[in-house]
Amino acid sequence: MYIEKLKYFIDLYECGNFTETARKNFISQASVSQYITALENEFQTSLFNRHVTPIQPTEQGKYFYEQAQILLHQYQNMQQKMADFSTNTLPTLKLAYTSYEDLSQLISFMSYLKEKESPLRFELVKISCKDVDYFVQNEVCDMALSFLDEFQSKDLSTFTITKGQYQAVVPKGHPLFENEVIALSDLYEYPLVLLSEERMGPNTFALMQERSQRDGYKAQIAKTIEDFESAFFYVIAENLIGFVTEEYDMSRYGDQLKKIPLASSNHTYEIVLGYRTDTQNPAIHYFIQELTSYHKI
């Protein structure tokens, strides 16, 4: 198995189409098919069900996909670091993130680094919340941006980027739309939409449920979704209530959606940057030093 060719499997898994996978990798469809067949022969299992359109991964294929992503990221990370050693420059920082909204919290800091003519270079990789601890712990990435609750390993350090209290997102026409503040007794009377446990991360998802119980209510979760932005579609289409952070910009939705604070809620969040405490990477030390200085301004 050639590690760099794992990208063929990953692309096929994500798009479900041999022709599209071949186009993305500038190879023939036959080459993609031969590689997948070789993988299946090597592991003596079927990775895809080819009798449906688009093709679907088997259970073995789903497991292989998760592991292949980690292995390919580690290999690419090693390639980059070896290249940095040869040129005697600061290593490129591989930054994992779980949400575009979280990543936007670093934009002003990036402008600050640019003004200082910082030598830092970055590579971004989007991952699931459930993977952040593993990715940082095993140096698949250098740092990860996510909920504090997803960093469980004791040998990881975190730097707080932002924290606050979740607010409700209510569609126009909903009984609570005119409220300036929503009481918890009113909130829990209506069906809600949340990110799924897979997308939110098992620790954060469990904590959300625990906080609802601490509020003294049982949440009516009508739908769970995989993509943060798609929540707003369901909020409008099915008259549900969703949740966003205090910083989330709702202006793009005009008067169709309203962000409303919750009264006396336990639903808080903390977005942090996680990295290995024992890291010897000079680029990480430089980044954290500059980030600390920036937050003191």
TrEMBL record:
Question: SUPFAM superfamilies recorded for this chain?
Answer: Periplasmic binding protein-like II (SSF53850), Winged helix' DNA-binding domain (SSF46785)
What would be one Pfam family of this protein?
Answer: LysR_substrate
Which keywords are on file for this protein?
DNA-binding, Transcription, Transcription regulation
Entry-linked InterPro entries: HTH-type_LysR_regulators, LysR_HTH_N, LysR_subst-bd, WH-like_DNA-bd_sf, WH_DNA-bd_sf
Query: Chaperone: present as a keyword of the record?
Result: no
Q: Which Gene3D superfamilies match?
A: 3.40.190.290, Winged helix-like DNA-binding domain superfamily/Winged helix DNA-binding domain
Tell me which domain of life the UniProt entry assigns to the organism this sequence originates from.
Bacteria
- GO molecular function per UniProt: DNA binding; DNA-binding transcription factor activity
What region holds the HTH lysR-type domain? Answer: 1-58
Q: Specify the protein name.
A: LysR family transcriptional regulator
Q: Which GO terms describe its cellular component?
A: cytosol
